[in-house]
Amino acid sequence: MVKPVIFAICLGVLLSKALSIPLRSFADIELIGSQKSLFPFLGGSAPYFSFPANYGIPTDIPEGCRLTQVQMIGRHGERYPTRSEAKDIFEVWYKISNYTGKYEGSLSFLNNGYEFFIPDESLLEMETTLQNSIDVLNPYTEEMNAKRHAREFLAKYGKLMENCTNFPIFTTNSKRIYDTAQYFAEALGDGFNISLQTLSENSSSGANTLAAKSSCPNWNSNANNDILMSYSRDYLENISDRLNDENKGLNLSRKDAAALFLGVPSS
Ligand SMILES: *[C@@H]1O[C@H](CO)[C@@H](O)[C@H](O)[C@H]1NC(C)=O
Ligand SMILES: *[C@@H]1O[C@H](CO)[C@@H](O)[C@H](O)[C@H]1NC(C)=O
Ligand SMILES: *[C@@H]1O[C@H](CO)[C@@H](O)[C@H](O)[C@H]1NC(C)=O
Ligand SMILES: *[C@@H]1O[C@H](CO)[C@@H](O)[C@H](O)[C@H]1NC(C)=O
Ligand SMILES: *[C@@H]1O[C@H](CO)[C@@H](O)[C@H](O)[C@H]1NC(C)=O
Ligand SMILES: *[C@@H]1O[C@H](CO)[C@@H](O)[C@H](O)[C@H]1NC(C)=O
């Protein structure tokens, strides 16, 4: 007998950031979607890309076996920066936007009417959607990503679901995760009767959660700090030095250079 298909779209940590390339000129249009090669170098701050090495368990069905059940666990997709990241981003943006000289060198693209990619603070923490993107041509919205994921899921497992049209999708109460689950469910189409079930991320949830950060007493965000600290951060100073040399008086700090990775222009 085919067991019900159960999905969980979950987990509270961030995958990738909102990047939107403002529409200014023909040259900008040509750049849209052309800078994927940068993504692996942004320290996780990039739209989703498939990790370029072998990863995970192959999804081919082993010989002699029959697939009877699929459980999918997903994350939220591209989002605007979090509130805490935004503090650093705004700080560097204020320095850059209050600079009175002509931008030189790597920052010279700002002379062409760059539009800051966070038009409104209410967008912080939110998923990127077609509606809240500055540029409707943004190819990296979470909305499109979740919907594409659903279509791929249907292509792969649709047959298995032919007798299973009523099922729940579980999500956490984080808005961006809820939104991802909803876009995924929507894109599965009218043939399914899906109930979206919300499980809280609050500490009071105990083990009844999909994102066990607050509710897991042993969770330690700093567990691997010693490993992180063993890597040099000189490259940040080099970046700020280079930008400051090109733009006298800009006075970017190492921290500012780090904030540039968090979503300030990648174009
Ligand atoms: C200039 O910087 C200040 C904070 O120091 C900020 O309040 C202001 O909005 C900035 N101006 C612009 C145009 O970004
Ligand atoms: C769905 O039900 C039909 C009729 O009982 C059956 O022939 C078919 O194999 C079922 N599909 C799956 C994927 O189990
Ligand atoms: C859809 O699912 C709900 C439970 O979430 C159920 O109450 C309802 O009867 C279902 N509707 C159909 C048409 O199967
Ligand atoms: C979250 O958990 C705390 C501590 O367990 C509890 O006091 C609070 O009422 C919970 N909040 C919600 C919205 O459930
Ligand atoms: C930083 O710049 C110095 C001086 O140019 C150079 O020797 C060093 O290799 C650079 N470090 C990194 C990480 O790029
Ligand atoms: C940049 O730093 C120099 C030296 O510390 C200082 O004289 C100058 O006022 C600063 N410029 C700005 C725009 O903060």
Describe this structure in words.
This protein has seven helices and four strands. By secondary structure, the protein is of the alpha/beta class. It folds into two domains: 1-53 and 66-81 and 124-219, no CATH class; 82-117 and 223-267, no CATH class. A four-stranded parallel β-sheet has the order 2-1-3-4, with helices on one face. Helix 1 links the parallel strand 1 and strand 2 (71-74). Helix 2 (83-97) crosses helix 7 (254-260), helix 3 (142-157) packs across helix 4 (175-188) and helix 6 crosses helix 7. The structure holds 2-acetamido-2-deoxy-beta-D-glucopyranose (6 copies). Residues 1-20 form the signal peptide. Belongs to the histidine acid phosphatase family.
**Major sheet details:** 4 strands, parallel
SSE order, one letter for each helix or strand: EHEHHEHEHHH
User: What is the percent of helical residues?
Assistant: 25-40%
Q: What structural category do the secondary elements indicate?
A: alpha/beta
Q: How is the quaternary structure best described?
A: single chain
Distance between the termini: 52 Å
Please count the beta strands (DSSP E, at least 2 residues each).
4
Keywords: Hydrolase, Signal
Signal peptide: 1-20
Family: Belongs to the histidine acid phosphatase family.
GO cellular component, one term: fungal-type cell wall
Brief write-up:
Keywords: Hydrolase, Signal. This is Dia3p. The protein contains 7 helices and 4 strands.
